[in-house]
Amino acid sequence: MSQIKYKIGLVLSGGGARGFAHLGVLEALNEAGIYPDVISGTSAGALAGVLYADGHTPGEIHKILNVGSRLDFMRPALPREGLLQISGVTKILKNNLHATTFEELKIPLFVTATDLNNGKAVYFSKGDLIDPVIASASIPVLFQPVIINNICYVDGGVLDNMPLKPIENICKNLIGSFVNSVGYMEKVSGLINIAERSFMLSMSKEIIEKSKKFDLFIAPTELSNYKILDPDKAEELFGLGYKATKEKLKEIDIKKYLVNN
């Protein structure tokens, strides 16, 4: 039987640029006096999670990641393995992370990536930090895979876009932030748009059942109107996450989430 180690566990889904909404969620939670004791993230959730676990505030992370153009995040790559490289994200992490290993983070963190060789989700929580985070955010076809110990890794959302598994049985209270809402899309055309839409749909298939396991589950439906590869709307996305969380907090007893209770 698993032992409860943490009071509050936070799970952050994948969702590309929609991950800016995670920061609004964190901002609203912190304002209410709610702070996670452990974090599990995939893709955009891994990026937000690693910077938060490193000690940066949601507002600081918003400034760090809000570079204003997708070109700052990616550059063309040879098409044999992926259309783009997330070179900008690597640079951002190296320039802003104080920790270089999971063990040096201020909050325990689990990062999900997909092992293509063995066909399974892998949950990193020890050792070198940056490569697993980049692997977790490497959407297949669009981005080049990351090689770690001779294993080829891509986006964790392929197999687990809402990575509850690593912390499900070790937390008293579970909070989930899901930014991969998929609504109706009138026009789907172009290679990147088709790949993006297909990936988003595949990531969202298990969320209904998983959402029932959270004590507090935040999933702004308006996020379906935003593309995953366009960070230009960072301010709006942050605001949607913040607003949705504020509304959710009105429906629950906040006291059980506070540090002194």
Give a written overview of the molecule.
- The protein has 261 residues and is of the alpha/beta class.
- It has nine helices and ten strands.
- The strands form two sheets. Strands 1, 2, 5, 6, 7, 8, 9 and 10 form an eight-stranded mixed β-sheet that branches. It has a two-stranded antiparallel sheet with strand order 3-4.
- The two termini are 24 Å apart.
- About 7% of the residues have low confidence.
Number of strands: 10
**Percent helix:** 25-40%
| Topology order in helix (H) and strand (E) letters | EHEHHHEEHEEHEEEHHEH
Residue windows where pLDDT falls under 50 for at least 5 positions: 69-85
Shape: globular
Ends: how far apart? 24 Å
Biggest beta-sheet profile: 8 strands, mixed
Which structural category fits the helices and strands? alpha/beta
Radius of gyration: 17 Å
Binned strand content: 15-25%
**So how many helices?**
9
Average pLDDT metric: 85
Topology of this structure?
Layout: E1 6-12, H1 20-31, E2 38-42, H2 44-53, H3 58-65, H4 70-73, E3 75-76, E4 84-85, H5 87-96, E5 109-115, E6 120-124, H6 130-136, E7 146-148, E8 151-155, E9 171-177, H7 191-203, H8 207-211, E10 216-218, H9 234-249
Parallel strand pairs: 1-2, 1-9, 2-5, 9-10
Antiparallel strand pairs: 3-4, 5-6, 5-8, 7-8
